[in-house]
Amino acid sequence: MRIPKSALQLSIFALVIVLIVSLHNYTLPYLRLGAAKVGGFEETVLDSSTPSPSQGDSNLEKPFEADQFGLEGQRTRFQPGIPKVPGSDYSRVMVIPRTKDEDIGWIAEELPGLEISVYVVDEPNAPLHPPKNKGHEVMVYLSYIIDHYDNLPDIIVFMHAHRWTYHNNELLGADASQMIQRLSNEHVIREGFVNMRCNWAPGCPKWLFFNSTEELMSKQEESYLAKSWSELFPLEPFPPYLAQPCCAQFAVSSERIYSIPRSRFAFYRDWMIKTPLTDYVSGRIMEYSWQYIFTGKGAMCPAEHLCYCDAFGICFGGSTQYEHFVQLEDRKKEFESDLEKWKEADQLFRNSSADRTPDEISNSTAPDQKQQEHLQEQIGMIEKEREVLKKRAMARGDDPRLRAEECGRTWTEGDGF
Ligand SMILES: *[C@@H]1O[C@H](CO)[C@@H](O)[C@H](O)[C@H]1NC(C)=O
Ligand SMILES: *[C@@H]1O[C@H](CO)[C@@H](O)[C@H](O)[C@H]1NC(C)=O
Ligand SMILES: *[C@@H]1O[C@H](CO)[C@@H](O)[C@H](O)[C@H]1NC(C)=O
């Protein structure tokens, strides 16, 4: 049978097209993005998405599988987890990045028995270390997930090496040890991803926008966000904005991690290693992307009172009561500032008295001593009231029924937290 020449040409042409398309099936989105959005950065992105033979990557055996990097298809949809029966144990590990010089002795002292996984960022000979000291804690968090993916505990708490810091929870003495101790396993299992900080500022309710072009000192990373997003989540549209309480300390259930393929975490880490962005900027971008990675939500700002109640068992009874507690702190700060001013005025008076004539002194007025006593008294009263309220809130939080009630969860007799 004779095949017409034109039909033969056509089928060869079609075959070539099919070949090209299938070969580029995976890299195509990147090429498109590289040209359209991320201009100038496509080489780096291609590097990470197309394994080269010299890397000896095991992915090579199936280089054209659609979900090779777990980037295709629908974003993982959030499914609340189901806690174990009340009283069950949960395995936990705390993942900590540290430098050679950082002291983490507080963990063994305060949290004996807690399993920890410590990555030394600036010591390539340490048993656990990230492939590159870049991106602050991000490189370590991702490395832990990649290294331990096959054997994760129920709950992984990603924390910094320091015990006290301004960005720890104020109501828990800014103390990481208290935060770990009070963290509800059940809450983490239900939510899948829990920011360890309840206080909104900084980071909530809206933090990073995708339309920023100006480099702000306070949010240096914002102007790089749109481009980075296109590289990190190439098939996903921008959410309206990114927001979550600051500073990249959070707990995740292994169930939530397992809803995402390991290869996707490897892809994020690869981006981290290869991006020309600085350590600081790349770290910050990921800091505000974790909630998106684990829950698919751009913004995750749970009401502070609900966070304190369900995650840490400090339940004031509702938002009004919590607000009252917060306002007490604000008032205390005002009194403290007044007291500071009073002390300054008093000091000034004393200083200047030293080189004045008795006449001058008698003419000027010393700050009123009563005023100082009044301020100190007010501060003391507020401190006492706050202490009482906090104790009551902790007692309320110890009751699983009250905790569920305040957080709007259904609860039946016999249920745990
Ligand atoms: C970016 O978008 C937000 C919200 O849509 C808007 O409030 C803001 O003014 C925009 N900023 C710039 C620089 O266009
Ligand atoms: C008062 O004098 C002390 C000691 O000379 C000095 O340190 C302090 O700053 C002065 N305070 C004021 C308010 O002038
Ligand atoms: C003391 O105060 C009086 C009345 O205010 C004023 O006339 C006098 O000049 C002042 N004396 C000094 C030394 O400042």
TrEMBL record:
UniProt region (Disordered), positions on chain: 353-378
Short name of one Pfam family: DUF3431
Record field: compositional bias (Polar residues): 353-369
UniProt-recorded name of the protein: Uncharacterized protein
Record organism: Heterodermia speciosa
